[in-house]
Amino acid sequence: MKRIIVGIGIFFFFHAVAFCQNCQPQVKVFKIAQASAESLYEVANSLKSEEGKVSFDRNSNSLIVFDCPENIERIAGVIGTLDIGEKQVEIKVVVIEATEKFLEEAGITAGQVIIAQGEFEAIANLIKESKDANTRTSMTVRTLSNRPAVLQVTTDEVIGTEFVIFSNGAEITTPVREPIGSLLEVLPTVLNDGTIKVVLRPSVSSMEKPFTPSERTIITQVVIDDGDTIAIGGADVDRGSAKRGILSGKAASEKKKTEMFLTARIVD
Q1: Looking at per-residue confidence, does 230 or 211 come out higher?
Q2: What is the dihedral of CA 75, 77, 81, 83, to 10 degrees?
Q3: pTM, whole model, 2 decimals?
Q4: pLDDT, average across residues 32-36
Q5: 49-62: average pLDDT
Q6: Which helix (H) or strand (E) holds 39?
Q7: How many CB atoms lie within 10 A of CB 91?
Q8: Which 3 state secondary structure label does DSSP give 34?
Q9: Cα 40 from chain centroid?
């Protein structure tokens, strides 16, 4: 708390002279109860006067406002309305392997496609009925807005050994393990207009050489409406060859493409 008070003092000193004489600027610290101070920063900053200043402190989850009393009062009213708990988001991920012909018939011809709410159900039915597509993975998880979620299909593999030598000269060798397989990190953020910003980081790790794990990863970001689905294409896969899809981490029996469908839905 001492660090915050010192920071407020410096904040006040350097900006007090910028106000006109008919305004007696004040410093107000808003302790945010349920939302995050960072998420409310832009709102408070848009309501301040031209000379006013707004900052936030992550450690204490507080907004610091330096402004005229009437502006601080207006900002306080808005913060009180918006200081609600972070919304919960349900993330459903389906990873398939499909031929180019199937993807074209399903209308997925680009590397990244947004499918409107309700339309993915028709594609899911096509996947079930077609011989040119099969589901590799299906997972569902819930997380709070601005909180990352991790979906993974991994196994612990030995990547090395470590030695412990005791004072009596005894030695113990223990294996060092690391999760190897498919992993998807998702960071959903519910925006003020009801849309969802989704940051995705799918990665695949494998043991192509003994004790030598390798990892491939990509990062993408997209804003979608509540209930929409993101379709993201992966690499070509050939079963029986060394090629593997970054989204599936598995080889394919015939030349296909991996496709990931991620549906994000705000939970009431």
Answers
A1: 230
A2: 50
A3: 0.58
A4: 84
A5: 92
A6: helix 37-47
A7: 21
A8: coil
A9: 19
